[in-house]
Model the fold of this input.
Amino acid sequence: MAGYADEKDALRARLRRIEGQVRGLTRMVEEDTYCIDVLTQISAVTKGLQSVGLTLLQDHLDHCVVEAARESDEAATAKVEEATQAVARLLRT
Amino acid sequence: MAGYADEKDALRARLRRIEGQVRGLTRMVEEDTYCIDVLTQISAVTKGLQSVGLTLLQDHLDHCVVEAARESDEAATAKVEEATQAVARLLRT
Amino acid sequence: MAGYADEKDALRARLRRIEGQVRGLTRMVEEDTYCIDVLTQISAVTKGLQSVGLTLLQDHLDHCVVEAARESDEAATAKVEEATQAVARLLRT
Amino acid sequence: MAGYADEKDALRARLRRIEGQVRGLTRMVEEDTYCIDVLTQISAVTKGLQSVGLTLLQDHLDHCVVEAARESDEAATAKVEEATQAVARLLRT
Done:
C-alpha cells in the first residue's frame, strides 16, 4: 500500500483537474492569448501540482517514515534521507 | 499577435507532452506507485511547466516589452511592471 | 550607471536588514531554537532576498533592456536572453 | 536539545558564510555592479539558505519526527503536519 492509499480518489480528482488545466493552456496558446495571461495560468497549474506534492509528502511522512521509525534507526534514517532529497527536487523546480 | 507567435507549434507540442505527463501521474496514483516516485515525477512536470513559462517570458520581453520601449517611457514602464509581477507569481509557486 | 541607480539607498537598507536577519539565524542555532522556528525564519529571509531580486530585475528591464530596445534588435535580444537566464536561476533556487 | 544538535558548529559556519555573502551583495550595490551580476549572486545566496533549510529539515525528521513516531500516532501526525507546513513555506519563497 502506498502512503496515500486513503486519499487516492481525491488525488486522482485533483490530478485530472490539473490535466484539464494543462489542456486549457494549449488552447490559450492556440488562441493567441496574451503572454502574461498564459504565464499567470502556468503559475496556477504549477501551484496545483506543488500542492498535490505536499499532500503526497505529508502522507509519506505520516505512513512510510513513521513505520520506518518504529522498525529501526537505520530504516528511519534511510527513509528520511530519501524524503529530504524529494523535497530538494521540489524546491529546485 | 502574441509575443510567442513564432513558436506556437513548439509550445503546443511541449504543453501536450506535459498533459500526457499529468495523465501519467494519475496512472501512477491509480497503480499505488511509491510516494517518492510520484513526487519525483511531479518535480519533473513542474520543471517542464516552468520551462514553458520561461520561453513565454523571453518571447514577451523580446516582442511586447521591446515594442513598448520604442513607443514611450510610460508604455515601457507599464509592460515592465506587468512582466515583473508575472515573474513574482512564478517564483511564489 | 547600474539600472538600480535611483534605488541604491533603499536596496542597501534592505540588504543590511537581511544581513541582520541572517545574523539572527546564527543566534537561533546557537540558542538551540526549535528546528521548525529556524526553518520559518529561513523562509522569511529567502523571501526578502527574492524580493530584492525582483526589484533589481524590474530596474534592469526598465533601464538596461529598454535602452537596448532603442539601440537595435540585436542588442535587445541579447539583453532579453540574459535577463531570462537570470530569472531561470532565481526560479531554480 | 534541537534536532540539529550534532551539527550546530557546521550550521553556524554555513550561516556566517551566508552573512558574509549578504554583506558582499551590499558592497556590489554600493559599487554599481551590473544588475544581472547582483541577481546571479542573490540566486547563490538563496540557494545557500535553502540548503541550510534542507539540512535542518532532515535533522528535524530524523530526530523530532522519529521520536514522535515512537511515542504515539497522534504525536507523529502533529509533527508531520507541522513539518509539511514548513516545507510549504520553503516552497512558496
Chain A touches chain C through two residues (CB under 8 Å). Chain A has a mean pLDDT of 96.
